[in-house]
Amino acid sequence: MVELGSVQVSQPDMIAFASKYDPQPMHLDPNAASFTIYGGLIASGWHTGALFMGLLVRSLIAQTTSLGSPGMEDLRWPAPVRPGDTLTGRIEVLETRASNSRPNMGIVKWRGEMRNQDGKLVMGATGTNFFGRKPA
Question: What is the total count of domains within the chain?
């Protein structure tokens, strides 16, 4: 496991993100959110994903020769993120291999997660990243 660090989620940040990218009542308005199935304000799943990406880049990818990513799979948000939650990210490397078509590129498949301060899983995903390799 590679620990990515933690980030605290504030209500103003949640609302600002939702206002721009996911303007649904459960993300924007504490009063309106209290009448939803969530019983209160929750972060957009996309906000949680962006926070995960920030941790991943700052803790790992920025120290590498990153060549991008073809995407993620199995993105899930099994539990809501609430104002004041502290989220901790980590990844587990599932597979590494050299690219068959580009010998200067390595391919890493990983499983990532975010958990809140109570250890509850709030986001999970499988991703693939391309990294530069040194010549053999």
Answer: 1
Burial class of residue 122, CB neighbours in 10 A (0-12, 13-18, 19+): buried
Distance (Å, rounded) from C-alpha 111 to C-alpha 18? Answer: 26
Domain that holds residue 122: 2-132
User: Where residue 46 sits, what CATH number does that domain have?
Assistant: 3.10.129.10
Convert the pLDDT of each residue in 63-75 to its tens digit: 889 999 999 999 9
Q: Could you read off the pLDDT of 81-134 as tens digits, one per residue?
A: 999 999 999 999 999 999 999 989 999 999 999 999 999 999 999 999 999 998
The pTM of the full predicted model, rounded to 2 decimals, is 0.92
